[in-house]
Amino acid sequence: MQAQHQDICFESVESAELEKIDAIISQYGFDRSLLIAIMQDAQAEYGYLPKPVLRRISERLHVPYVQVLGAATFFKAFRLTPRGKNLVHVCLGTACHVRGAPRILEEIKRELSIETGGTSRDGLFTLETVNCLGCCALGPVVQINNDFFGRMNAADTIRLLKKYANK
Predict the structure, then answer these.
(1) 27-56 in b/e burial notation, b at 16+ Cβ within 10 A?
(2) Among 155, 134, 146, 147, which Cα is nearest to 91's?
(3) For 21-38, what is each residue's pLDDT tens digit?
(4) pLDDT tens digits for range 46-82
(5) Which pLDDT score, from 0 to 100, does residue 18 have?
(6) How far apart (Å, rounded) are the C-alpha atoms in residues 22 and 55?
């Protein structure tokens, strides 16, 4: 399950795909004051905000590209890279931290060959940390997609990753 360093080019967006962003922008009447709403809809459509889509938004709204990119990087809700099929959250809140969450995080990073915030080369996993998942009594907790797993250790987590890789 070892994945290589993340260096996939996700920036190819076909011209037919750009028609989708044109339709989104036209729904908002090409109103530049609705930039954030347009970007939210674009991200819902593409799963993230590819640079060609940001450029198209810039062109169609007559807003400088640097302003569009600035908005995309300022708000944490926007992603400039695609997420993997499976989103893995490792809780690093106090209860999880003292029960071994940092070791679990390091093991996941080693197993998937990614850093926090990265996506595995095969596109199966994106790894993120959170400050709390709200189930402190079960710490350390790992969330994969909408599933929560408590009282985890590094070995259990790797088995879990392999299970999700084969889904």
Answers:
(1) ebeeebebbeebbbbbbeebebbbebbbbb
(2) 134
(3) 999 999 999 999 999 999
(4) 889 999 999 999 999 999 999 999 999 999 889 998 8
(5) 86
(6) 12
